[in-house]
Amino acid sequence: MGIIQSIIIKLKREKFKRSFLSIGASGFGSYGYGDYCTISGAEKIRIGNHSWCGKETDIFVGEKGKLTIGNNFQSTSRLCIECNTCIQIGDDVLIEPNVYIGKAEEETDNIVIEDGVWIGQNTSILTGAYIGEHSIIGAGSVVKNKIPKYSIAAGNPAKVIKIWDFNKNTWVKVNA
Predict the structure, then answer these.
(1) In terms of pTM, does the model score above 0.70?
(2) Nearest CA to 121 among 102, 136, 104, 138?
(3) In which element (H, E) is residue 105 found?
(4) Residue 85 CB contacts under 8 Å (≥ 6 apart), including other chains
(5) How far is it, in rounded angstroms, from Cα 148 to Cα 130?
(6) CA–CA distances in Å: residue 82 to residues 23, 161, 172
(7) What is the pLDDT of residues 121-144, one digit of tens each?
(8) Where in the chain are the domains?
(9) CATH of 3-173, one of 2.40.33.20, 1.10.10.60, 1.20.120.340, 2.160.10.10
(10) Residue 63: which pLDDT band, with cuts at 50, 70 and 90?
């Protein structure tokens, strides 16, 4: 790669980073922004340090929307976020492929994903969802309710199937 191409790439990265409301130290630049991504409403997005989105990511923040993504966020590929309210994604969140985060029928409720959450592939996180810290959402789940911290939830609608027992230091099955 020539010097001129290198300069052009650096200028494009800088322009891209400046379009956000706030962006962390490592940014969402080429080292944090995959191929074939679409971002609309970047001026309403806050992104923490060392966050990364994989290829084919689509993020749309509407007129009344606000999206906050914490530090060390990672999504693999084909993440779609549709935000017309407030979506908060905490630190150290891992999202597998083909995940949708956004509106259900009503656009009035916010979405909160706390720190240390792992979301399995082919999952939908809908308005009104609240996922507590260090929880795991199973593949193919639809979350539109509150999932407590330190739990495993799965299904449509997602239901808690296990909770971490700190006394036994293991996952404990939840009786239905």
Answers:
(1) yes
(2) 138
(3) none
(4) 64, 65, 66, 103, 107, 108, 109, 110, 111, 127
(5) 8
(6) 19, 28, 34
(7) 999 999 999 999 999 999 999 999
(8) 3-173
(9) 2.160.10.10
(10) confident
